[in-house]
Amino acid sequence: MANIKSIKTTPYQDQKPGTSGLRKRVPVFQQPNYVENFVQSIFDSLEGFEGQTLVIGGDGRYYNDVAIQKAIKIAAGNGFGKVMVGRDGLLSTPAASHIIRHYKAFGGLVLSASHNPGGPDGDFGIKYNIGNGGPAPEKITDAAFARTKVIDSYKMVEAPDVALGHIGTQRVGDMVVEVIDPVADYAALMETLFDFTAIRALFASGFRMRFDAMHAITGPYAHRILEEMLGAPEGTVINGTPSQDFGGGHPDPNLVYAKDLYDLLMSPDGPDFGAASDGDGDRNLIIGKNRFVTPSDSLAILAANAALAPGYATGIAGIARSMPTSAAADKVAEKRGLEMHETPTGWKFFGNLLDAGRVTICGEESAGTGSNHVREKDGLWAVLLWLNILAARKQSVDEIVRDHWQTYGRNYYTRHDYEEVDAAVANTLMDDLRAKLPGLVGQSFDDDLTVAYADDFTYHDPVDGSTSSKQGIRIGFTDGSRIVFRLSGTGTVGATLRLYLERYEAADGRHDLDTQTALEPLVGLADRLAGIRERTGRQSPSVIT
Length: 545
Ligand code: G16
Prior knowledge:
Alpha-D-Glucose-1,6-Bisphosphate, Chain A, domain 3, TATA-Binding Protein, globular, alpha/beta, 3 domains
């Protein structure tokens, strides 16, 4: 019989999962029983997993190796029949989602704080995914949070640490632990979706690419798929070895943290195509030679061209985007007669629509795109779909983007982040703005901006009927322009105020303006409406994407 111990503990009051699981600084996770309490609280909120399989993997950041041993022993203590874990405890978030689905596991634990920095003073995180491979819905995360506030014991098998360095099977108490190759199943899935022969021919013709894995989890995946399977020259993948602190960097693939890649693609001798992914491999950055593609545009272009890839050859059922994401994808859906859905921020809201077959492609402005192949956003998937489209259309990224705008119009789009703002100041700013909303409709600003609607976004899930309110303040104008205010749910210090700005220019309109210039009037108006500068004391955003 397994040596299962029930160990006494005292609750923490701050284990509320945010947009994507529980994320805190490493020293917070290192407090006695902090991991144990949270993992046990998740299991206490689930039913029917006895004897079933749990997938566990992480992005390899600092504390991954410690937390994973605790999670495995608690899973054994709670009666799971088997744990599948990536070698060295590694699995990208989309690969974990695929493994859960492929092996019909009960669920999975993803150990990651995604794009947040890592290291002893960096961030760590734990997220639970359900049997469809996607992040747990609010019903489960709310129940887990309620449990964390009262938990008084957890169950664990007392056993030596599991050796995670080699593929194979071992036991912890009565539970089987299978260590698997983190890349193989995912790479095989990609091969079923994309025209690898055409992409191989593209590389063989001299097409040059640079993929920046940012010292994070996609390194092994990108080396295997791009260089070994698709024949991209060695050196195509840079920063390809995962490190515990991401080489001291910030593994967020945007124009601030992947600036070197951007500069390279804008240089005369730069490659044809540049891409990057984040800490846990679910985000993507796409840059063509002399052309950065905004994530919102990328979603629209991928949806419009998906049928060029074998996995989507019969067409897509519909598209979903998070509310702050630009309406570029809506234009595609409108023209093609596809279902279009607007959901709150966070991938968990796409799960029901994907499971119900209502949508095939989903995306968020925060560099996340994905499809029904898994239930997470998927950085390398987006890169491979772009490569498939480039191979099929035999055009440059710039030509494809311009052509798209000429067909559907251009949605100028930017996001301004004010990070580590005092939480009380940020909440008051949002409350005061919310109070103003009813009076804004019909008002005109700067001669040509008339407010068509102003509300706090509420989502009604059309599949399970659940409602999620207070998901971000939207102020929409009669010309299609829009200002959105939201507080981040993934930050670990103070509050992050996100300001999302959008302006639509029709197919025959001007598409060559500088984005920040095109959106300047909206930036000014947002500040006047919310008093951002005055209240936060910040003269400019910390990050512009
Ligand atoms: C941010 C983004 C969201 C994204 C979330 C999780 O949330 O705005 O669009 O879904 O991160 O992404 P990841 O798992 O890559 O961290 P928030 O609440 O900070 O705006």
